[in-house]
Amino acid sequence: MELTLSIALACVFLQVALTFWSIITMGQARLKEIARKQTSVGEVALSPRNFSSEQARAMQNNAHNQFETPILLYAGVALAAALDASNAGVALGAVIYVASRLLHRAIHVGTNRVSQRFRAFVLGLAGLAVLWLALGVGIVIG
Fold first, then answer.
1. pLDDT digits (tens, 9 = 90+) for 58-103
2. In terms of CB atoms within 10 Å, which of 12, 34, 76, 128 comes out highest?
3. pTM for this model (two decimals)
4. CB-based contact 119:111 (threshold 8 Å)
């Protein structure tokens, strides 16, 4: 396996780990809130948006966020592997994207400064753009 594809696949596994981490920490925050009787199970049975603590909602929003743009990472790396079109740009784009997702999560569940979070999000989109442009070049040049 080429080094560039190995790097891109490592980024996929890191993003999957980030998703699991987000789901687990969201569950912990939810359970803690219920255990403290800040929110009852009945209040959230039909809508998890009813969790009262800001922390539980931030964790929840971040976990949901891990199912939005990461699909573009997964699809791009899968195509690069399937079409033998991996190159340095694909690997670089994947690294930029996953680094931005880690930063985005830290901001999202930490200070939650929207301007900082937005910059991290845009950096991730730039990483995805690099990945997909490099993938296109890899397919054409093949």
1. 999 999 999 999 999 999 999 999 999 999 999 999 999 999 999 9
2. 76
3. 0.91
4. no
